[in-house]
Amino acid sequence: MHYVQSITNVLTNHLGWHRARLKLIARFQAALLKLQTTNLSKIAVSLKGGVEIKSNYRRIQRFLSEYDVDFTALGGLLVHLLPQTGPYVAVLDRTEWHFGETPVNILVMGIAHKGIAFPVAWKVLPKGGGSGADSHIQVLERFLSVVDPESIQVVLADREFISVEWIIRLQERKIPFSIRLRSDRRVGLSEEGSALPARMFARAVALDTEEVLEDRHLFGEDGEQVETTVKTNVVVRRIASDDAKDPFLILATWKLDPTGASKLYRKRWEIETLFAALKSRGYDLEKTHLTEPDRIQRLIGLLSLTFAWTHIVGEKRAMQEGPPPIKSHGRRGRSLFRYGLDKLQSLFTTPERQNTTFFLCLSALRSPTAHLSHT
Fold it and tell me: Comparing C-alpha atoms, which of 86, 90, 102, 77 is closest to residue 139?
């Protein structure tokens, strides 16, 4: 396939892994960008010409099942490819789907950037359903192995990520956070005193206004194996009338100006945009037939690396050609990720070589921050 050697050279400079493995990664990236699917049978058809499809398929399977990927080095590269510097807005969330009766459940921590999140650390959970504090802490520590805690502006997370153990770990690491609470989460003035559901403090708040409750104790959820409470500020904001299903936005915040917490929390949605890019709006992740956590862990690494390149190309294209056009509804018809994906797909599906275009795209992978600032 065209261009594989050049991609391999850049990956070698970044990672220094075994060259044969990096060449496989480069071929996988090219096939993924061409086909926009993680169906491995289809990827095998385009992986390497002149080789039997079943041989290509076995090569992919061996990589995903056997290769000892250095996820710390990969996470460091993903941060390097992020075309911004700190302080970072970090976001934690989970995505899940089913292959037949088998759940595929992935916990991801990324950095919010221009409407989407760059993945940095992830963990494939062994079963479906909600995740626990142990998994949250593991992903946080993987994230911190490549991102300095002092460079984190805030960690954002939804109502699944509210255990006392998890919040205490963030405080131990001196990391600011803004985490949404369920309206029935018990809040009190002290450890020993009485506590009320958070919604009781929000009922008197007018629509589109908020109140800050300083130095409040969050009590553990039912069944949580932690007897202590944790002290945070609590921001209660009314976002709808009482007849709505969930009329309040309630946030636990720490080491953060609480008056700006609800506005900053909007960036949490950027990780949902990442999940859409990895799935239906980009690489069709749900079409993989893999269910083994270790294999999916490596597959997410391949997709994350390709995603980073794709988004950088989209930003570069917007600078050089102008941003995606605005539709009649007032929003852009394509995201920067999609803008880059269309460019790269055209590059890898056109029979003729487009050397000038390719090397412009490759330069974004080689040195994204320098290239974008120069442009």
Answer: 90
Please count the helices (runs of H) and the strands (runs of E) in the chain: 14, 10
Has residue 321 been placed in a domain?
no
Neighbours of 176 (CB within 10 A): 20
Is residue 192, in this structure, part of any structural domain at all? yes
Distances (CA, A) of 48 to 30, 84, 271: 10, 35, 33
- H or E element that contains 235: strand 230-238
Give the C-alpha separation, 33 to 25, whole Å: 12
Cα–Cα dist 90/175, whole Å:
10
Q: How far is CA 165 from CA 109, 178, 181, 220, 229, in A?
A: 18, 15, 15, 9, 9
| Sign of the torsion angle spanned by Cα atoms 49, 50, 56, 59 | negative
Q: What is the full DSSP assignment across 295-322?
A: HHHHHHHHHHHHHHHHHHHHHHHHHHH-
Residue 225 lies in a domain: yes
**Of the candidate ranges 29-38, 78-87, 224-233, 234-243, the one whose mean pLDDT is the lowest:** 224-233
User: What's the pLDDT tens digit per position in 49-101?
Assistant: 888 999 999 999 999 999 999 999 999 999 999 989 889 999 999 999 988 88
What is the distance between the alpha carbons of residues 144 and 155, in angstroms, rounded to a whole number? Answer: 12
Per the DSSP assignment, residues forming a β-bridge with 155 are 90, 177
CA 105 to chain centre: 14
Contact status, residue 79 vs residue 109, Cβ threshold 8 Å: no
Query: What is the rounded distance in angstroms from the CA atom of residue 73 to the CA atom of residue 87?
Result: 21
User: How many structural domains does the chain have?
Assistant: 1
Strands of 102-113's sheet in order across: 116-125, 102-113, 88-99, 152-157, 177-180, 248-254, 230-238, 210-218, 186-188, 195-197
Mean confidence (pLDDT) of the chain:
90
User: Residue range 346-353: average pLDDT?
Assistant: 88
Q: Is residue 47 part of a domain?
A: no
Given CA atoms 140, 144, 148, 149 in this order, what sign does their dihedral have?
positive
Residue 371 has pLDDT above 60, yes or no: no
Tens digit of each residue's pLDDT (9 = 90 or more) over 175-215:
999 999 998 888 888 877 778 888 888 888 888 889 999 99
Q: Could you list the residue range(s) of the whole structural domain that residue 194 is in? A: 177-251
